[in-house]
Amino acid sequence: MPRFLARVLIRPKTEIRDPQGEAISRALRSLGHEIAEVRTGKEILVTFDAADERAAREEAARMGDELLANPVIEDYEVALEPVRAGARA
Amino acid sequence: VTRVAILRYPGTWSERDFAHAFTLVEGVETEIQWHEDCDLRGFDAAIVPGGFSYGDYLRAGAIAKLSPGTQELRRFAAEGGAVLGSCNGFQILCEAGLLPGALLRNASLKYVCRDVHLKVENAITPFTRKYARGEIIRIPIGHGDGNYFVDAEGLRRLEGEGQIAFRYTDASGARGVKDANPNGSLEDIAGITNARGNVLGMMPHPERLAEGVLGGEDGRRLFESIVEAVE
Fold first, then answer.
1. What confidence category does residue B160 fall into, taking pLDDT thresholds of 50, 70 and 90?
2. pTM
3. Distance between CA atoms of residues B43 and B3, nearest Å
4. A62 at the B interface (CB within 8 A)?
5. Identity of the residue in B102, B107, B184 whose CB atom sits nearest the CB atom of A72
């Protein structure tokens, strides 16, 4: 089975305050940068095997829904890429 | 005799404090259960104590929601069993979908460990019946992710159904004053129940202030409430 790398990008929903982003934004301003807003998130890299790209996309979405993101507070998106045999993420 | 099970996940740290707090109430037997061997048949109530289950990896409570113990909790709650989650236990119950909403990072980004004041908003739950509605009690907190959030529709439902059990206030019961809300929680929410009223989640630790020798006993009536309610 071909191997895929899913880059799962998770962000707090826009209506959720992001105090970490606010702290970073203040720090950047202290360096003289003119910052409108900073929002933080996290990226989770999942390497796995699937029959084809469609199956891989569906499986990655299930991972996001079931565990990786909390739909109450977070949105996520998945960028999928094939992994060549012997290559590392 | 009332039988209370206390769950222990990897990283749980308040299970023995809860077991001790229940010794202050007559006629209670407690059993600490490892989450993988959890069996709540024959129990009247289940406690999900505080700590850092699975190191808070991914999100607080996110890994614990998949544990067999949490599955057993779902079954127990669906049958009407009384379930109390405190601190990390509250986070686990939200992640598991047994309670609405989620606990975000404290607005201050700091871990906060101190006594807070709570207003008892609902005194007819199995967990609060020994308190009076509107009463102000003092209970400790110790958490970094206690900032309660639920969307507007969810908040309307909580308010409409009387599901808000506790709110953060100052010692006089005032809201919106400095330091009353320790973590930025929406609407000063400190504890909520599910719609049926048999599951309560709260960030504060009632087991840490349940007897005079520890400096206060406002937490004790929560344990008395549970025992009276399930009798």
1. very high
2. 0.95
3. 5
4. no
5. B102
Check: CB of residue A35 under 8 Å from CB of residue A29. Answer: yes
Q: Cβ contact (<8 Å) for A70 and B95?
A: yes
> Given A17, A20, A73, which is nearest B102 (Cβ)?
A73
CA distance B218 to B209: 6
What's the angle, vertex CA B149, arms to CA B144 and CA B172, rounded to 5?
A: 75
**Over the stretch B54-101, which tens digit does the pLDDT of each residue have?**
999 999 999 999 999 999 999 999 999 999 999 999 999 999 999 999
pLDDT in tens, B144-153: 999 999 999 9
Computed over every residue of chain B, the mean pLDDT equals: 97
To the nearest whole Å, the CA of A73 is away from the closest chain B CA by 7
Q: How many helices (H) and strands (E) does chain A have?
A: 2, 3
Tell me which residue has tokens 């049958």: B79
Collapsing DSSP to helix, strand or coil, B69 comes out as helix
Which token pair is B161? 């159904």
CB contact under 8 A, B151 and A68: no
**Contact present, A72 and B151 (Cβ < 8 Å):** yes
CB contact under 8 A, B58 and A73: no
Mutate to test the interface with A, among B90, B91, B149 (most CBs of A within 10 A): B149
From residue B78, give the alpha-carbon distance in Å to each of A18, A25, B34, B74, B193.
34, 45, 21, 6, 14
Asked if B105 and B145 touch (Cβ cutoff 8 Å), the reply is: yes
Inter-chain residue contact A72 with B105, CB threshold 8 Å: no
The residue written with tokens 């009384």 in the block is B82
The complex's ipTM works out to 0.88
